[in-house]
Amino acid sequence: QVRLVESGGGSVQAGGSLRLSCAASGVKYHKKYLAWFRQGPEKQREGVAVIDLRDRSRDYSDSVKGRFTISPDSAGNKVYLQMDSLKPEDTAMYYCAAGGLFSLLESYYSYWGQGTQVTVSS
After folding, report:
1. In the chain, beta strands by DSSP E
2. Contact (CB, 8 A) for 27 and 2
3. What is the maximum alpha-carbon separation in the chain?
4. Measuring CA to CA, which residue among 74, 75, 1, 63 is closest to residue 36?
5. What are the angstrom distances between the C-alpha of 2 and each of 11, 26, 68, 96?
6. Cys-Cys crosslink for 113: which of 3, 4, 17, 121, Cβ 3.0 to 4.6 Å?
7. What's residue 30's pLDDT?
8. Distance between CA atoms of residues 60 and 66, nearest Å
9. Is the separation of the CB atoms in 39 and 45 below 8 Å?
10. 53-97 pLDDT per residue, tens
């Protein structure tokens, strides 16, 4: 059974940094893509970063490219999202997801964590 648990959210001022963690267990070989999504107030959920656990390929949404970095730990049991130069528009619930396609579209992800809240004040 796949289980994803996020942590590391919090409140920060604009320009600050946070690092989110996603502890993944039970991720089978065919669910080898882990991604971070977010859903802001009255907004649709959007994919912000994805990583292929096999070859460490990464992709980012245009809204976070150059500011966020997704990376795994050495064992591949955790995935981090380092968020720098945060903006108020980054305020959202952030979710970790596991899926079978290298994509930022949520329809390709079968397993989701409960989320961790990030609030950026101006």
Report:
1. 3-7, 10-13, 18-25, 33-39, 46-52, 58-60, 68-72, 78-83, 92-99, 109-112, 116-121
2. yes
3. 42
4. 63
5. 29, 4, 25, 12
6. 4
7. 52
8. 9
9. yes
10. 888 999 999 999 999 999 998 877 899 999 999 999 999 999 999
Tell whether the torsion through CA atoms of 104, 39, 89 and 79 is positive or negative. Answer: negative
Mean pLDDT of the chain: 93
pLDDT value for 75: 78
- Are 96 and 39 within 8 A, CB to CB? no
- What's the pLDDT score for residue 104? 97
Q: The tokens of 122 are what?
A: 């101006």
- φ/ψ of residue 81, rounded to 5: -125, 105
